Amino acid sequence: MATFTPQDYLMMSRAIKLAQGGIYTTAPNPNVGCVITRDDQIVGEGFHYRAGEPHAEVHALRMAGKLAEGATAYVTLEPCSHYGRTPPCAEGLIKAKVAKVICAMQDPNPQVSGRGINMLREAGIEVQVGLLEADAQALNPAFIKRMQTGMPFVQLKMAASLDGQTALANGQSQWITSAQARQDVQAFRAQSGAILSTSQTVIEDNASLNVRWDDLPLSIQAHYPAEELRQPVRVILDRQNQLSADLKLFQTAGDRLIVAPGGDVECLLNDDQQIDLRATFEMLAKQHNINHIWVEAGATLARSLMQQQLVDEVVLYQAPKLMGSDGRGLFGALGFQEMSQVIELDITELKQVGRDIRILAKPIYKEQ
Amino acid sequence: MATFTPQDYLMMSRAIKLAQGGIYTTAPNPNVGCVITRDDQIVGEGFHYRAGEPHAEVHALRMAGKLAEGATAYVTLEPCSHYGRTPPCAEGLIKAKVAKVICAMQDPNPQVSGRGINMLREAGIEVQVGLLEADAQALNPAFIKRMQTGMPFVQLKMAASLDGQTALANGQSQWITSAQARQDVQAFRAQSGAILSTSQTVIEDNASLNVRWDDLPLSIQAHYPAEELRQPVRVILDRQNQLSADLKLFQTAGDRLIVAPGGDVECLLNDDQQIDLRATFEMLAKQHNINHIWVEAGATLARSLMQQQLVDEVVLYQAPKLMGSDGRGLFGALGFQEMSQVIELDITELKQVGRDIRILAKPIYKEQ
């Protein structure tokens, strides 16, 4: 069992903090930070900013230069061992002659996990693993899920009044939540790999479903320049080919993947001739490297996703309003006959966003 | 304008802290704390514990004894000037020859406000008013409201799933919220002057609607001995005389006021031959000295109270559950046609209670 010094904790914390600099841009790559120290002084540091650009270790090694020799490198994720768009980082660390590498966690991909560490050890470098592992995992929940299960991490965004209504009986709903909550939604969109919705929502709201830099919270704009904006791909379920080219969806920045007969991607159907959500998500992960799906849609899709146990996290905005139960509910009818059947969740975060409430909750699925 | 020293703030904070010792027992009296200092040392302190027992100033003066002469008294509320169950506190302070009195706020009763202060000043005592006034007001929102308006302060307790359902379509609802939330409800009940419900709720749940010491949170039990327990009066609206003597309501500790034709109190009806809620509340304040009503009932009463703008604060427990919109909603149908009609609230507190969420919110009523 590796033992770590206070200095080690401090440096890995710094590496984790650095890694967060990439949360809007690295998809589908993971967020990774690296700090290189010599004689307890930082001589190099960096993080992965964008897929296709250098990894965290490369930035840190460039900054350290010759000082990397005999140094200790702190990396939030096991250095890669394969030749991709960049040479393997393990090789870079070996060439730079670092003496020691501390990784917060192994690579979550079972096919390569441990290879980078072995490569380093075979070159005579001391390697320790597991420092602040939980914090490092929290940098990349979606990347880790896809690597381990082949499925994307799915966040379901919902907005309702305090009494659970998303619209009045006549459909009116603008605006249930405040401008701050809508800015907050932009921040979630910006972190996702894909924004998923249905043709119904796209048509009803003539929704762009992209990230508008001007609508991001100021705190994000401050360290995320407009010219660096990464648009998640917009995935629209359009089983009945209802989308038309005049919609804003087709006139705004950001790629699209239309899931429709004859659409951009295969329209996988289930026995009921509806889009097979699980198979579609798996295909999006496998063929399009999508780690993280942010869902904004209506009650029908929300209900299907919950019933099929495909939601990893619910992000529920509640406006401090009472609309009456003659409005439209969050999930429509669920047909429960017993309290033991209701869907239970664990609340993981609770905060106020402007005048509204934001609840993060993880469904606790029952065995099916 | 009075100016206060850091010592003054410190001592008044202490008096406010002391006053909180009475929050379960003083009703219908206000919570009041008092600290007496001489040469910046505390020589006496106390708080009002129970109606009919000594006021805060009396406790503090007894403790100070002869040291009260020339001392400064910090009181969270203007000392009373009238002979009630105890002699006026202003007289006590004069007799003890204190040199200075600092009050956090004047008496909220417009008929006596300022009299105690004048009595002290006429006796040559220096009086300052307004130190930590907002904090002192927060000790007694219900007492202040009744004194200023003649109406009680009304808290409406509700419990629902995250999607706003209080029960399944078939009426099943045990238990939506957790044991911790139910303990929390006991703490609210214990602070109220009256617990209000309807015969329908009492009969359906065979509800006791009293305070059960064993069910109070441990943190409250620790400084509120079981033998000191004060039971709020249970006010039950029973327009159709449906209550029967075999109900738990009649077999459990605590007084009752049945609002029914031929009941304990006058059954005031409106033009629709329903109980006139506003007139009933006013009568409860006036004839029964009830400052603070805690409402636990179903959607029908909740809807009427909200529509008649009688609720001062909503206390909403949300369980992390999804029940579907085919369940029973919090307020039933409200018939809104426009978003501008919906009831808006301000959230004043948000926290987790066990696995549940507790939201405190104040309705923002529109002019009617």
Automatic annotation (TrEMBL), chains A, B:
Domain CMP/dCMP-type deaminase span(s) in chain numbering: 6-128
Record-listed Zn(2+) binding positions: 55, 80, 89
Binding site for NADP(+): 159, 175, 201, 205, 298-304
Cofactors, names only: Zn(2+)
Residues engaged in binding substrate: 173, 189, 209, 212, 296
GO biological process: riboflavin biosynthetic process
Entry GO MF terms: 5-amino-6-(5-phosphoribosylamino)uracil reductase activity; diaminohydroxyphosphoribosylaminopyrimidine deaminase activity; NADP binding; zinc ion binding
InterPro entries recorded: APOBEC/CMP_deaminase_Zn-bd, CMP_dCMP_dom, Cytidine_deaminase-like, DHFR-like_dom_sf, Eubact_RibD, RibD_C, RibDG_C, Riboflavin_Biosynth_HTPR
Keyword set, alphabetical order: Hydrolase, Metal-binding, Multifunctional enzyme, NADP, Oxidoreductase, Riboflavin biosynthesis, Zinc
Superkingdom of this protein's organism: Bacteria
Annotated catalytic residues: 57
EC numbers for this chain: 3.5.4.26, 1.1.1.193
The protein's annotated pathway: Cofactor biosynthesis; riboflavin biosynthesis; 5-amino-6-(D-ribitylamino)uracil from GTP: step 3/4; Cofactor biosynthesis; riboflavin biosynthesis; 5-amino-6-(D-ribitylamino)uracil from GTP: step 2/4
SUPFAM superfamilies, sorted: Cytidine deaminase-like (SSF53927), Dihydrofolate reductase-like (SSF53597)
Pfam families cross-referenced by the UniProt entry: dCMP_cyt_deam_1, RibD_C
Record bears the keyword Ligase: no
Entry's cofactor comment: Binds 1 zinc ion.
Reactions mediated catalytically: 2,5-diamino-6-hydroxy-4-(5-phosphoribosylamino)-pyrimidine + H2O + H(+) = 5-amino-6-(5-phospho-D-ribosylamino)uracil + NH4(+); 5-amino-6-(5-phospho-D-ribitylamino)uracil + NADP(+) = 5-amino-6-(5-phospho-D-ribosylamino)uracil + NADPH + H(+)
Chain's role: Converts 2,5-diamino-6-(ribosylamino)-4(3h)-pyrimidinone 5'-phosphate into 5-amino-6-(ribosylamino)-2,4(1h,3h)-pyrimidinedione 5'-phosphate.
Family, as annotated: In the N-terminal section; belongs to the cytidine and deoxycytidylate deaminase family.
Protein name from the UniProt record: Riboflavin biosynthesis protein RibD
Record gene name: ribD
